[in-house]
């Protein structure tokens, strides 16, 4: 099922919940239902429905001393194009440290600048 198919039959509360998770980039479920101004029970149902449709990811965690979930956008919602300049991935992505004055960074910036024109 594509993301648009999964979103087609969302309730208004589920749409608001999905938008909140996407806008925040990640939120604890205990804050999620408060932000949506719904009960914790309803917030849990919304999060579970979104997870079942693969629109968000829920990961068990401890937050402020309580067990909860951390809600994040589904991986497919992440926009990796912002890390690209032409066909070059940002040199700051990876395990090696890179100097901002390096040739790799300069080349990436040049590709990015030429893309704009």
- Contiguous low-pLDDT stretches (5 residues minimum) are none
Order of strands in the sheet with most strands: 1-3-2
Note the total helix count.
5
Second CATH tier, the architecture of the largest domain: Orthogonal Bundle
The structural class is alpha+beta
Distance between the termini: 37 Å
Number of strands: 5
- Give, in order, the helices and strands: HHEHHEEEEH
What is the C-level CATH assignment of the largest domain? Mainly Alpha
Percent strand equals 15-25%
Which fold name corresponds to the CATH topology of the largest domain?
Arc Repressor Mutant, subunit A
Helix content: 40-55%
Task: Provide structural commentary.
Helix 2 crosses helix 4 and helix 3 packs across helix 4. The protein is α+β, with helices and mostly antiparallel strands. The longest helix is centred in the N-terminal third of the chain and has 13 residues. The strands form two sheets. The protein has a three-stranded antiparallel β-sheet. It starts with a helix and ends with a helix. The chain has two domains: 75 residues, Winged helix-like DNA-binding domain superfamily/Winged helix DNA-binding domain (Arc Repressor Mutant, subunit A), CATH 1.10.10; 36 residues, no CATH class. It contains five helices and five strands; from the N terminus they run ααβααββββα. The model has no long low-confidence stretch (mean pLDDT 83). Strand 2 and strand 3 form a beta hairpin.
């Amino acid at each position: 099922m594509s993301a648009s198919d999964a979103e087609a039959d969302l309730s208004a509360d589920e749409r608001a919940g999905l938008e909140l998770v996407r806008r925040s980039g990640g939120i604890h479920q205990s804050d999620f239902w408060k932000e949506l101004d719904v009960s914790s029970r309803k917030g849990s149902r919304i999060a579970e429905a979104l997870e079942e449709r693969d629109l968000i990811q829920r990961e068990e965690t401890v937050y402020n001393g309580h067990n909860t979930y951390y809600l994040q956008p589904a991986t497919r919602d992440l926009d990796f194009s912002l890390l690209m300049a032409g066909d070059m991935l940002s040199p700051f992505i990876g395990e090696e440290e890179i100097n901002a004055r390096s040739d790799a960074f300069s080349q990436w910036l040049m590709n990015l600048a030429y893309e704009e024109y």
